Amino acid sequence: MKSDRWSLIEEIFQSALERPPAERKQYVEMACENDKELLSEIESLLENDDDAERVLRSLIADDLKNAGQMSDLSETGLQLGPYHLVRELDSGGMGIVYLAVRSDDHYFQVVAIKMIRKANDSPELVHRFRRERQILATLNHPCIGTILDGGETQDGRPFIVMEYVEGQPITLASKSRGLSIRQRIELFRSVCSAVHYAHQKLIIHRDIKPSNVMVTPDGMVKLIDFGISTPLAPELVLSDSSPTATSLRRMTPDYASPEQIQGKHLTTATDIYSLGVLLFELLTGSRPYTLSNLSAVAADRVVSEQNGKKPSSAPGMSSSARKELSGDLDRIVLKATDLDPSQRYLSVQHLDEDLLRYLTGKPISARTITPTYVLSKFVQRHRVAALTACTIAIALSCLLLLYLKQSRSDDRRVKEVRTLADSAISDMADKLQHSSASTETQAALFRSALSYLGELRQTIGNDPRLLLELSKAYVRVGDLEGSPLVANLGNSDTAVTTYREASRTAIEAHAHMPGDESTQAVIETYQRLGGIELFLGNLHESNDNYQQALTWARNFWRQKPDEPIRKRLLATSYAGIGDVSLGGLNPDKALENYSMAFQVFGNSPIGVEDHDRMLIGFYLGKGSTLNELGKQSEALENNRKGVALAEALVQRFPASLPARRALFLAYEDLILPLAGRDALNVSDSSQAQVYARKALAIAQMLVGVDSKNAQAQFDLARAYTSMGDAFRQSNPHIASIWYRKSIGLTKQLSPLYGSGARHWLAIQNEALAEVLVKEEDGPERLRLLQEANLVRQELAETSPHGLLHLMRSYCKLSDAELAVKGLTKARQYANAALPFLDKFNVTSPSLLVLRDLGFCFESDGAVQHHIAMDRKLPSAERLTAEAESRRWYSKSADVWSTWNQREAATPESEHERHKVETFLKRSGTVPQQAVANK
């Protein structure tokens, strides 16, 4: 067994032991992911907890014995208190480092122990050793090796017990992992973080070199070996007399600063110099100079003569690497390694900040700041965006000036202006589509273009070609402001207003110039309006716009039914009607429209990104519809088809963010039929967790790409909710953690997305309340449901779905009040739900309706049952309540039985049916006996 394998086993095993026994199995399964062998090994350890220490020690001993590394017999096997030395890891001038294990009644742990050699325990070394131990005791940073314990051997030699850091020196790790220059800089910044922390604790390391900067298998940097470090704080200097740090002159020459070599007074600038040398080697694979085996005088001369060597001039560099290093990176390294300490960076933090500026394309402090340099860095950050902005702004400005200089009767000049304006927005959209420009930057560019086109319209008038470009600009600005379909800034109200202007402009253009392009523009603006109104919960407005789009698209398609653009516009219009129908609790109509979309569009991918993304959406919409109709197998089949297509799309277009988001949506829509809330699922939590983690990874990536993208933020909140859904059945506590994260993020988005975000917030509140099952959680459960109820009341009239949500919200509040003995309020909430029960019918094709009716009938039955059992009430009232209770429970049982009749039963629906039927069987005579005994 490899050493990194048993290290991983030990880490997961120890973390599991720190958890309550009931939570260990769940944690280990998550930690091991799909590694069945690893899971089996750790489960075996947990089952044999008492023998776990012996088993792990056996694994370690076998590993070391097989490697032939049990060599230093004079020390190997030595017992230092609870620690047992296993083998030698490293040795140096001060002492030896051993791999050891802690083996006592408290716990088992793999550690590293450093001690002085028997033959080299001079007072000077003992003093330095104790000082290192004292220094390490003051440091607590994730990128610095941690001291765990300390003591003395039986013969009086001090030792230090440290965390065992397994890994490679940073230079070797970077090479073996094939890290790019940017990735190496990111790794180096972790080193800067550790050294800066030590400096804040008034510690100078004095020996920064690759072998003292380790990279663990999981990519974590660990700064180790403070053996010759210098404490600047008096309290860190031990009281016994010893030679000063400067007189000892201990160092690694190739990385030592000039002042170290010369034996001068040392400051934090010394470590900055060593960091500069390390960065040089990390970037180039070679050192700026070699000083080993040279005298101090000779080493000082070499440093003085060769100082100023640029990384880009290092031998063996490729032309592309040399180009990447020249300029800013050269300047950063040269500033860090300046011969004069006062000319280096003022602190390690300043060095780190310059590296961050380089990574983000901003001007660095190591260079003289000039307007030209600042502008070049801006263009570098937004290369395509800046070029496009300049091109469009210049073109449109020239168009306006050109026209103003010409007579309105000069038809030739006007035609030139029209021709140039015609492609302005299309060209800009094409160039920005695959650029790195942020959502915010793109929105600013299109707003500027929109302003130019507006001025041009005032000059030229209602030229149809210009109107078309103006409509396109309005659409693109609306997309970026707040369309839920693309990356956006979350300004939904602005988006609605902008889309309406786009629609009016497109219709006007069509009136002046009927044709394919203007017709397409009209259809697309209606579709945009339908989509955003649906997202905001305005079902009627959404339906009106999609119906308009469908009417126009159907006529457009009939002219040339085989033309791809016409098929796309008609199919997406049908799909839009399907979305609206699903939101209106009419899954039959939704299925009809999704089927029409497939009939027009086809059901196979063609390798074109936009086409295949739309096809994925059709499969997901149909899957959701089938799930609501109770056809879980068919629903899962469609959802899995969507996932397969989306995964293939990402493989074909790996750099496409829209393709990644299509995959995110596919994973998300598969989670609901697997383990979604409230009965409409097959209760496959393990599979749901797999897809929830995948969806979460994509959502986190998209937020990392553009933090101002509100759509990505909203997707992340949705991914958090799905993680909660995936765990709600198997581990309510873990589910609650994810629901809380989702609620926190959605609250931040609520001012942007308005009713859409508030609707999701209500869903999340209700989901969290459902998994808060402990008795002491009662007050919080009530608060969450009350907050959700306020949103439900606000949005109730927007759609049938809104009314259904409000009805169920009252029933949930009634159940929560009963749980805390609040019968009076429970009765009030149950009565509030009664008017809504008549608005829905048990013959509805939507299982969402049946589900909520079943739960609400049960809630009313529960309230009446509690009234019947209240001995303080009159007998007549209790008998009436008993009859009402049975009536409501019978209605609930009938609803859940309907699921069986439709062949739509799920594990949760069967659980609910069994629960209410059991109650009916048990409650037949109990209330009557209670009344008789009164």
TrEMBL record:
Pfam families registered for this protein in UniProt: Pkinase
Organism superkingdom: Bacteria
Originating organism: Edaphobacter modestus
This protein's UniProt keywords: ATP-binding, Kinase, Nucleotide-binding, Transferase
Biased segments, Polar residues type: 925-934
Stretches the record annotates as Disordered: 900-934
Bilayer-crossing regions: none
Name used for this protein in its record: Serine/threonine-protein kinase
Residue ranges annotated for the Protein kinase domain, each copy included: 83-356
Entry-linked Gene3D superfamilies: Phosphorylase Kinase, domain 1 (3.30.200.20), Tetratricopeptide repeat domain (1.25.40.10), Transferase(Phosphotransferase) domain 1 (1.10.510.10)
GO molecular function term, any single one: ATP binding
Basic and acidic residues bias spans: 908-920
InterPro entries in alphabetical order: Kinase-like_dom_sf, Prot_kinase_dom, Ser/Thr_kinase_AS, TPR-like_helical_dom_sf
